[in-house]
Amino acid sequence: QVQLVESGGGLVQAGGSLRLSCAASGRTFGSYTMGWFRQAPGKEREFVAAISWSAGTTYYADSVKGRFTISRDNSKNTAYLQMNSLKPEDTAVYYCAVDRRWHNVLAGPDGLNAWGQGTQVTVSS
């Protein structure tokens, strides 16, 4: 099993920026997709962004497209989520997950079982 630890969350005003990090350790594997998800109070966990092993392919939810950027540094086993132009509706706990298959990450959270503990992002208006 791979252990994942998210960090970088906090409280910011609308229009501000944050950068989240997801560090992987333990039983890592050769190639895998990394994804970011978020869950607001009373809502289901939803997909935010995904990035392939080579970083050549990325995909974003429509709600964050143009504002968020996902990246990764495989030498550090770490993925990042740069969040700009934050809105109050971005407030949520943000989680990262990994899977060998690109399709599994894009399909949503239900089929994934490698998660971090989450980091809280709060955007004030």
Explained architecture:
The chain has one helix at residues 102-106, and strands at residues 2-7, 10-13, 18-26, 33-39, 46-51, 58-60, 68-73, 78-83, 92-99, 119-124. The strands form two sheets. The chain has a six-stranded mixed sheet. Strands 1-3-8-7 form a four-stranded antiparallel sheet, with no helix packed on it. The protein is mainly beta and 125 residues long. The protein has one helix and ten strands, in the order βββββββββαβ. The chain is 4% helix and 49% strand. The protein is globular and about 40 Å long. The model has no long low-confidence stretch (mean pLDDT 93).
Q: Nearest-angstrom radius of gyration?
A: 13 Å
- Principal-axes geometry comes out as globular
Uncertain parts:
none
Number of helices: 1
The average pLDDT is 93
In helices, the fraction of residues equals: under 10%
Given the helix and strand composition, which structural class is it?
mainly beta
Rounded to the nearest angstrom, the distance between the terminal CA atoms is 39 Å
Strand order, sheet with most strands: 2-10-9-4-5-6
Estimate the strand proportion: over 45%
Strand segment tally: 10
| H-E order | EEEEEEEEEHE
Main sheet record: 6 strands, mixed
